[in-house]
Design brief:
The complex is a heterodimer of chains A (256) and B (308). In chain A, strands 6-7-8-3-9-10 form a 6-stranded mixed β-sheet, sandwiched between helices. In chain A, strands 2-1-4-5 form a 4-stranded antiparallel β-sheet, covered by helices on one side. The longest helix of chain A has 20 residues. Chain A has 10 helices and 10 strands. Chain B has 12 helices and no strands. Chain B starts with a helix and ends in a 15-residue tail after the last helix. The chains are: A alpha/beta (256), B mainly alpha (308). Chains A and B meet through helix 2, helix 3, helix 4, helix 5 and helix 6 of A and helix 6, helix 7, helix 8 and helix 9 of B.
Chain lengths: 256, 308
């Protein structure tokens, strides 16, 4: 069985610095995989490689069996790779509703001409989009904020809205970049529930980059560990917890 | 806001028609100013799509206007004599559309190389481009060189100016308020997030330039057939700045505010004609004052949704 996303010996160099080196990573359908590593290990870079922001200098990435080399980020998004950002990137001048609506680009049967003529298909497609946005907002408990400016929501809700916006693109693979960053323990609990819920309800694959061990260990079945751009371990949370290389990377080596 | 655009359009058309029917009652001076206002509304609303909604700072709007103005004027000058009286409105519309279309093609030409640039760099490129267009017209004998074109038939009526202003407003607001059009604002807000959500920033930026340039070209055509005389020096950098100021005063991306700003900034110099020597001083002080006290635009009620 071929995986949904497959990274083979993916390498990227910025000048003399090898940010990610020969990374092998497979994510199957409906799988929830964690990607962890200390600061500067190359997690976000790996994300940017998968979403097409960077082009790998070596190796190959395939999504749904097709190579993603040279494919623009917006095309990959339409093909089913969606993401959130480490430093939340909501659309600053838009309401909660519009933030989600904007992400429904693949879903609409319209362009400029349709919008100007306001024909039946256009009106119907707009209604459909509206229904779907409202439904998403309801599922994630954001419907009361529908007309609030997205960036004026509390921090945890902004994270949630970003996930909802990513889901609005109808992804097959959702990449979450440090969603627990800056959250308090209660919010982290909520977030873990939310991620498991999303994965079950929508049946999508999720790659979770996270700093917080508790969160990753709590929900991921499989975890890959990056250190200095190299994958040093991969396995179940239990295996990772006992892996001496991982312990060394996180806590430093024992003095001899 | 949603779903109300057709109503808005209808209202604008009714007002335009009513006013143009009663336009005999106005004296020529006021009528002329009313046409100026309509043309400036078209310019400001179309620039607002580029600068306000899509967030691409363009300083070349007078250039697009010049293209539309010269092309349309040349067409009516060449074909005008051969055209029977009753077909004149048709020729006029054709000239406006041709002017707008050529301007749109030029807009495409500017839009594409500008994609790698943002902020001040883009502003400088569009400014340079506007100047290039002006200089091209200035040196082209076909378009009357530095004198420009004279004796253009006065075909622009109040009705035409305001009907086309209504069309511009309709097009910009409807497109921007659609799910498709939210992409313009997404590109303005955050290009990286936009492309992660399936929005092609390149396509949207170029589209904004093309639509904006098209309507600037139409405005240029109206202007030429209103003043009867156009010269390249009328489409200089100052003209571009004037339009930018309308957009900024009205509030970037706020169509209603921008319309009001266009109206006020066209009327203001006329109202201040009595104190003509001090006019520019008063005008500048006003702008500085507004910039200091209401940088978000004169006609916006705090930060709300992105449009209207």
């Amino acid at each position: 069985m071929s995986a949904l996303l497959e990274c083979e010996k993916v390498t990227i160099k910025f000048g003399g610095l090898t940010a990610v080196s020969a990374l092998d990573l497979r994510i199957g359908e409906r799988e929830l995989v964690g990607l962890i590593g200390p600061n500067g290990a190359g997690k976000t870079t790996a994300f940017n490689l998968i979403t097409g922001v960077y082009r790998p200098t070596g190796g190959k990435i395939t999504f749904k069996g097709r190579s993603t080399a040279g494919v623009k980020p917006y095309v990959l998004s339409l093909h089913g790779i969606s993401r959130t950002f480490q430093n939340i990137r909501l659309f600053g001048s838009m309401t909660v509703f519009d933030n989600v609506r904007t992400a429904m680009q693949g879903n609409r049967a319209q362009g400029i001409c349709e919008a100007l003529l306001r024909g039946r298909t256009f009106i119907e497609s707009e209604r459909k989009v509206e229904r779907e946005v409202v439904e998403l907002l309801k599922i994630f408990g954001l419907e009361t904020f529908r007309d609030t400016l997205g960036t004026s929501l509390p921090y945890g809700d902004q994270r949630r809205l970003e996930i909802v916006r990513a889901l609005a693109t109808q992804p097959r693979l959702l990449l979450l970049d440090e969603p627990a960053a800056g959250m308090n323990p209660t919010e982290k609990q909520e977030l873990m529930k939310l991620i498991s819920f999303v994965q079950e309800k929508y049946g999508i694959a999720i790659l979770l980059v996270e700093h917080d061990m508790k969160v990753v260990m709590g929900i991921c079945k499989r975890i890959a560990v990056l250190d200095y751009g190299v994958k040093i371990a991969e396995g179940t949370p239990e295996e990772i917890r006992r892996n001496p290389k991982v312990i060394a990377a996180y806590l430093g080596k024992e003095e001899a | 806001m949603r779903g109300k655009e057709p109503l808005f359009l209808l209202l604008a058309v009714i007002v335009a028609v009513a006013l143009s029917l009663g336009s005999g009652a106005f004296n020529r001076y006021y009528l002329g100013i009313a046409i100026d206002v309509g043309i400036n509304v078209i310019l400001a609303v179309s620039l607002n799509l580029i600068n306000g909604h899509t967030g691409q700072f363009s300083l070349g709007h007078a250039g697009f206007m010049a293209v539309g103005g010269f092309i349309a004027a040349k067409l009516t000058l060449v074909c005008g004599a051969a055209c029977p009286e009753n077909l004149r409105p048709l020729l006029f519309v054709g000239a406006l559309l041709l002017g707008g279309s050529v301007a749109a093609v030029v807009g495409l030409g500017v839009g594409i190389p500008s994609l790698r640039l943002r902020g001040d760099y883009l502003a400088i490129v569009t400014l340079g481009f506007g100047e290039i267009i002006r200089v091209i017209f200035q040196t082209s004998d076909f378009f009357g060189a530095a004198t420009g074109l004279t004796g253009i038939p006065k075909l622009t009526t109040f009705g035409w100016a305001w009907a086309l202003a209504a069309v511009t407003i309709y097009v910009v607001t409807t497109v921007v308020n659609s799910t498709y059009g939210r992409g313009f604002i997404a590109v303005h807000d955050d290009e990286i997030a936009a492309s992660a959500m399936g929005i092609n920033p390149v396509r949207y930026k170029v589209t904004a330039f093309v639509i904006g340039a098209f309507f600037a070209g139409i405005a240029g055509g109206l202007y030429a057939h209103h003043k009867a005389v156009i010269s390249p020096s009328g489409f200089d950098f100052i003209k571009s700045i004037e339009i930018v100021v309308m957009v900024i005063l009205g509030g970037m991306g706020r169509t209603v505010g921008v319309i009001f700003a266009a109206i006020i900034l066209t009327l203001l110099p006329e109202l201040l004609r009595g104190v003509a020597e001090y006019r520019m001083i008063i005008y500048s002080l006003l702008i500085i004052g507004i910039m200091l006290t209401r940088p978000q635009g004169l006609f916006t009620l705090g930060r709300k949704g992105a449009t209207s």
